[in-house]
Every structure is written in C-alpha cells, then in structure tokens.
Amino acid sequence: MIKLEFAEGAELLSEEDRDLAARICGTADRELRTVLPTLIDVVHVRIAMGQCVIPALGYGASAMSMDRVSFVLNPAHAAGSADLSGC
Phi and psi of 7, rounded to 5°? Predict the structure, then answer.
C-alpha cells in the first residue's frame, strides 16, 4: 500500500489535485507490486510544495529511505499543479 501524506503548504492543491495524487499512488502501488513483489508493505509518499525541483518539469522526487518518498511540486511553475497529471 502507498500511504499518501500532504505536507504543510500542500493545501494549495485543489481537491481534484489531491484525488489525482491518490489515484496515481494507487496505480503506482499495483505496478510496483507486479515488478517488486517483495517490496515492503507500506510506502509513504509525502507531497510538499517547494522550489527544490527539476526546473523543466516543476516537480521532483527522491527516496528518503526504503519506505519514504518525498515529492515536491513547485506551485510557481508555469503548468502549476497540472504537472501532477504528467507524473
């Protein structure tokens, strides 16, 4: 299971964007389990707003540990939160 968390500042995301993030996590979980069947039971994905992103994309992600992924979205990027749909 991928447990989705929203960091302080992520309230800038609309309810639609939050739902999209949840759907992306659900799809990613199914795909990960197919490729990595021995993956740990719960992976935590934390969405935050910030500037430390890939400039061309407006977002970035990094594994913080075996069970934690940090996803940062720059709300000032030209595409804004629409970038979520490209992830």
Answer: -80, 170
Q: Per 3-state DSSP, what percentage of the chain is helix, strand, and coil (rounded to 5)?
A: 35, 30, 35
> H or E element: which one contains 19?
helix 15-35
Pick from 29, 26, 55: which is nearest to 40 by CA?
A: 29
Global pTM reads 0.73
Q: Report the percent of the chain where pLDDT is more than 90.
A: 18
- Spatial distance between the Cα atoms of 5 and 70, rounded to a whole number of angstroms: 10
Q: Is 8 helix (H, G, I), strand (E, B) or coil?
A: coil
